[in-house]
Amino acid sequence: MSFSPKAVCLLSGGLDSATCLALARRDGFACYALTFDYGQRHRFELEAARRVAAALGAERHVLTRIGLDAFGGSALTADIAVPKARSLAEMSEGIPVTYVPARNTIFLSFALAWAEVLESADIFIGVNALDYSGYPDCRPEYIEAYERMANLATKAGVEGRTQLKIHTPLLRLTKAQIVGLGQQLKVPFGLTHSCYDPGPDGRPCGACDACLLRRKGFEEAGIEDR
Asked: What pTM was computed for the model?
């Protein structure tokens, strides 16, 4: 009798995480989607994540609250202006104020806990090291180090029952390549949300880094963003 291995898939509701979830499903995993309400100003992504998880057939979708806004330190969690209308050259310099301190480390820790409960050896995360603005927790060396730590930190790892793998299938893809891959996988682009600073009705600002990179990706892929 065959069965599908379980995977925990981090799902923000954005284009990349939706494509990553679709990839995991294509590769035969039973996907358990995990979304965080961490006090982000772009809370519209939470509803987007719910819609995407349902549309892509997640086995279960968990939304958990962690109050990173209690610490602030980021334009996404504090009263700090989100940069707008930056050039690609400006985006590629330094670490922007939209970086949320230790966010992926915290997210992966929650994913690791759920994976151990599920007896899963697989976590999917849609980090990208090419078309993102220098976030330190999106680099391949960070993911490799976290994976090593994770296998030392769990009962399943110490007992040798599970060798955890953190999958980063989008790590070295351009945004245009991610868009093209998403189209092949029939990702419902219209359900996703990318903007860092949406209006009260959820309409994208069109000028933050996330909006500009998304637009660039769709234009270069020659695909309409619905």
From this structure: 0.96
